[in-house]
Specification:
Elements lengths: L1 H4 L3 E5 L5 E2 L2 E2 L3 H10 L3 E6 L6 H10 L9 E3 H12 L4 E5 L2 H9 L3 E2 L6 E4 L7 H12 L3 E4 L5 E4 L2 E4 L1 H12 L4 E2 L6 H10 L6 E5 L2 H10 L3 E5 L18 E3 L12
Parallel strand pairs: 1-4, 1-13, 4-5, 6-7, 6-8, 8-9, 9-12, 13-14, 14-15
Antiparallel strand pairs: 2-3, 10-11
Amino acid sequence: MEQILNKKGFICDMDGVIYHGEKILDGVSDFVNWMINTGKKFVFLTNSPEKTPHELSMKLERMGLSVPHSNFYTSAMATAAFLSSQNPGCTAYVIGEAALTKALYDQNIYMNDVNPDYVVVGETRTYNFEKIEKAIELVNKGAKLIGANPDITGPTIKGIMPATGSLIAPIEIATGKKAYFVGKPNPLMLRHGLKKLNCHSDEIAFIGDRMDTDIIAGIESNVDTILVLSGVTSREDIDKFPYRPKYILNGVGDILNINIK
């Protein structure tokens, strides 16, 4: 545990690590306060492109946890940064929520439904056949297909719901073009997190609850990985994968030897 405590910083997944639904998980408040009080660098990383850092900060505030918006990094932001680095000043047709569009605008990527460079897809509540048709038309004309994350499903307060991987599948099938996904397990997300913290890979630990996205992304980024059993993965699931996390804890409170139920 001392090796973890001595880390310069932490990159933390959110759902299943920090909260579940609208409830902060046991031990999280103490862990976050410890990071703040000891001057640890940290960033909350999320594959969801639906909310801005300000909205995520407000969500945690409603649950009793005060974290500045500057401590959040989303797949929407990573997608926008990726496209800007690949093709500065490009345009995009977007199927997604306002947070994804804002992230693109912040990188000077503007909307175009006639001849965009990219079709970008993220989770959205306004998914419909008209948008699918438009996306297929534009990809067939030459637009590159980008997904904010590859997740097939995601947890919501209503239960498991379709995520970006499911929403983009009809476009892939109809066009025969495979999307490039920016979010985890693409290690690009973690490298953005490292850059945001201004840390080297050996100075931080990545905390996640999913073997298939979080832990593999950490391993491929050469970062020490901490799997917490407070989310999706159970202890019995670990042996199903050909790789292992460096540390396995019940929850982030275990880092401070807090008793987790």
